[in-house]
Amino acid sequence: MSGQTLYDKLWNQHLVKQRDDGTALIYIDRQLLHEVTSPQAFEGLRLAKRKPWRLDANLATPDHNVPTTLKERAEGNSGIKDPVSLIQVQTLDDNCVEYGIEEFKINDPRQGIVHVVGPEQGATLPGMTVVCGDSHTATHGAFGALAHGIGTSEVEHVLATQCLLAQKMKNMQVRVEGELGLGVTAKDVVLAIIGEIGTAGGTGYAIEFAGSAIASLSMEGRMTVCNMAIEAGARVGLIAVDDTTIDYLAERPFAPTAEQWEAAVADWRQLVSDDDATFDKVVTLKAEDIEPQVSWGTSPEMVTGISGQVPDPQAALDETVQRSHTRALEYMGLHANQKITDIKLDKVFIGSCTNSRIEDLREAAKVAQGNKVADTIKLAMVVPGSGLVKRQAEAEGLDKIFIDAGFEWREPGCSMCLAMNADKLGAGEHCASTSNRNFEGRQGYGGRTHLVSPAMAAAAAIAGHFVDVRSLSANDATHAQEA
Amino acid sequence: MKKFTRFEGVVAPLDRANVDTDLIIPKQFLKSIKRTGFGVNLFDELRYLDEGQPGQDCSNRPLNPDFMLNQPRYKGAEVLLARRNFGCGSSREHAPWALEDFGFKVVIAPSFADIFYNNAFKNGILLITLSEEEVDRLFVGVDANEGYQLDIDLENQRVITPGGEILEFEVDAFRKHCLLNGLDDIGITLQDEDAIRAFEQKHKDARPWLFRQPA
C-alpha cells in the first residue's frame, strides 16, 4: 500500500464518521468569523434555538466593511459612514457578545483581515482544520493545516455541531523546482501556476504546493501561494511543515508553550506527504521560467509575464475561450498584442489577504524608497493586513518611505480588494493591485484590475505604467517614468 | 428547505464561461444581514445599465435590453443554462440566495466551482452537470424555440427535452436525499452528537494544543 499525502493525513486525523453514502463528518478545530458571512448563520442558530458547540474554537474580527482612513477609524464603529455596513459590523459585535465569542473589534490593534490575523496570532496551527466563510481560507494551508472556505449555511453548521459534512477531495501536487530569479516573488509563482492550470484546473482537488522553490519561501510567501489556490479552482492549498513553519509559530499568543510545544512540534514534523504517496495529478513548473506576472483580463488565468503582451483572442483554439478573451479585452479597454508595459495605470492598491503582510510591505517599500508616485496616478494606497502588521511596518519606518513617495498609508482591512468599503475604482480606471481577483466590477463598478506582486505594484505606481521590476534598481524607477 | 419535486420549467441561457459569484451578486449587496431579497439584484451588472445600490427600488432602473433575463421569452425561467466553471470565486452564499430568490431551481452547466456547488444544494438548488456537447445542444434548442422547457426529474436523475431526449446526470446520494426530502443537515448531523463528543475527547487527549487558549 502506498503512503499518505499530507491531505490524506489531515483528513484521517479529523474523520469523525464516514457515511455509506460517501459523505463524511469532519471535526473542525478553528472557525474564523467576519461580519459579511456570519450574520445569517447566527440568525439561523437563534431561530432553531441552538447553541454554539464549542465557543473557544471561534475567533472573530471585522474586516470586509471597515473604513481605512485614520480619521474614520478614530471614531470606531461610528466612523463607518455607510449605514448598511455599520449594521453589519455592529451585528458581528452583538453576536460575539451574545454568545461569548472572542472578537478583535474594529480598533483593537489585533484587528485585521481574518487570514492575516489567524496565523499572526498562532490561532492557525499545523494539523488543524480551519474554516471561515471566505474562499481565501485556503491561506492557512501554508501551515500544513486543512483549511478551506465555506458558505454561510456551513458556518452555521460548524457553529452548531463543530463538524462539517464533507467529501474527500482528490490529491494534486504542484511542484515548483529550482531557484526563483531576483524580483520574482510568491505572487508571481502562484499567478504563473494559475496561468498554467487555469481557474478550474484545481476543481475537486486539494493542491499541495511542493518543490525547492516553494520550500525556499518564507511563511508570508507560502501564505500568498496557498491563498490563491482557490483562484486555481481548489478550495484547499497545502504546504508541508518544516523549520520555517515551526520558527514562525514560536511564541505566538495562541501557540502552545513549554512541554506542550515540544510535543506539538514532534507531531507537526509528521505533517508532510510520505515519499511513496501517490497524487491523482502532478504539475511541475520550473522556477527559472517564471517572470514577474501581470493579469490582463477578467479572470486570474488571464495572466502573462511582464515581457509579454495581451493575447489575440482569434489565436485561441476554443470558441468559448475566444469569446471570453474578446469580452475581457473589451471590458479592460485593451487591444490584442498590446505590450504589458504599455498599460497605463490610474490607481495602485497594495494590500489584501494575499499581499498585506510585513514582508509584502517591505518588498514594496524597497522599490518605493527615494522615488515618487507618478503624477498620472490618482491614488496609490498601502493597506496593512492587520493592526500588528501596521505597527511593525511603522517600527521599521516603512510608513515614512511610502508617505514620502506619495502613497497613502491606511488602517487595516480588506479595503479595495473587493471594495465593500469606500475604497474603490471608478469606471474605466486601471489598477495595479496586489489582491487576488480581477473579475468585472470586483474593485468597483467598471473598474479594471491587474493582479501583480507588491514590488511590481510599487514599480508601476512610480512609473505610471507597468515596468519590469527586475530592470530597475530602486532608484531607476523615476527614470522609467521620465523615459 | 422545500422538498424538490419534479417540474417542467422555462430555460434561460447564460452563454458565458467562468461566471463568478461577483457577477451573480455584486459585493455591495452582501451588506445585508438577511437571507432574502437578493433576487432583484441577481446579475445586477449585466441586468441593469446603472450601478445598483443596496435597498434601492429597482423597478425604475434602466434595464439592459440585451440581457436575457430582460427578454419576455425567458420570463418566469426556473432553469438556468450556463457554461463551464459556473459559480467560481468567492464563497458568498448570497449567490445561491439570489438565484433562489429570483426563482431559479436548477442550474445546468458542464462544471461548477466547488464552494458554490455546496452552497447551492444547501439552499435547495439542484446543480446538474452535463457534458459540453449536451450543454451545447441545449443552448441550440433554447435559442431555436421560444418557451423552451425542460422536465427536471431528480428522483430518476434525468433531464427530458421537449423532443423527448433523455439526459442522465449524476448526483451524490446524500445531497439527493436532502433535496427530495427538504432536510436541514444540521439536524441530521446532530443525530451523531455522541460520536462527535467521543471523537472530540479522543482528539483533545491526543493533541491538547489544538484546544489551547492564549494566556
UniProtKB/TrEMBL annotation, chain A:
Q: Is this entry keyworded 4Fe-4S?
A: yes
Q: Which keywords does this Swiss-Prot/TrEMBL entry list?
A: 4Fe-4S, Amino-acid biosynthesis, Branched-chain amino acid biosynthesis, Iron, Iron-sulfur, Leucine biosynthesis, Lyase, Metal-binding
Aconitase/3-isopropylmalate dehydratase large subunit alpha/beta/alpha domain mapped to chain residues: 8-464
Superkingdom, taxonomy of origin:
Bacteria
Q: What is this protein called?
A: 3-isopropylmalate dehydratase large subunit
Q: Among the record's GO biological process terms, what is one?
A: L-leucine biosynthetic process
Q: In which pathway does it act?
A: Amino-acid biosynthesis; L-leucine biosynthesis; L-leucine from 3-methyl-2-oxobutanoate: step 2/4
Q: Could you tell me what the cofactor note in this record states?
A: Binds 1 [4Fe-4S] cluster per subunit.
Which GO MF term does the entry hold, naming one? 4 iron, 4 sulfur cluster binding
Tell me what reaction this enzyme catalyses: (2R,3S)-3-isopropylmalate = (2S)-2-isopropylmalate
- The enzyme's E.C. designation: 4.2.1.33
What NCBIfam families would the database entry show?
A: leuC, PRK05478.1, PRK12466.1
Checking HAMAP family in the record gives: LeuC_type1
Keyword Transport present in the record's keywords: the answer is: no
Q: What's its job?
A: Catalyzes the isomerization between 2-isopropylmalate and 3-isopropylmalate, via the formation of 2-isopropylmaleate.
Tell me how this protein assembles: Heterodimer of LeuC and LeuD.
State the family named in the UniProt similarity comment for this chain.
Belongs to the aconitase/IPM isomerase family. LeuC type 1 subfamily.
Q: Which CDD domains match?
A: IPMI
Query: Per the entry, which co-factors are needed?
Result: [4Fe-4S] cluster
Region annotation (Disordered) maps to 58-77
- From which source organism is this entry? Vreelandella nanhaiensis
- Give me the residues that bind [4Fe-4S] cluster, please: 353, 414, 417
TrEMBL record, chain B:
Q: Short name of one Pfam family for this protein?
A: Aconitase_C
Q: Which gene encodes it?
A: leuD
The record's catalysed reaction(s) read: (2R,3S)-3-isopropylmalate = (2S)-2-isopropylmalate
Q: What's the protein name?
A: 3-isopropylmalate dehydratase small subunit
| GO CC annotation | 3-isopropylmalate dehydratase complex
Amino-acid biosynthesis listed as a keyword: yes
Give the similarity note.
Belongs to the LeuD family. LeuD type 1 subfamily.
> Native species of this protein?
Vreelandella nanhaiensis
| InterPro entries according to UniProt | 3-IsopropMal_deHydase_ssu (IPR004431), Aconitase/3IPM_dehydase_swvl (IPR015928), AconitaseA/IPMdHydase_ssu_swvl (IPR000573), IPMI_Swivel (IPR033940), LeuD (IPR050075)
Main function: Catalyzes the isomerization between 2-isopropylmalate and 3-isopropylmalate, via the formation of 2-isopropylmaleate.
Pathway given for this chain reads: Amino-acid biosynthesis; L-leucine biosynthesis; L-leucine from 3-methyl-2-oxobutanoate: step 2/4
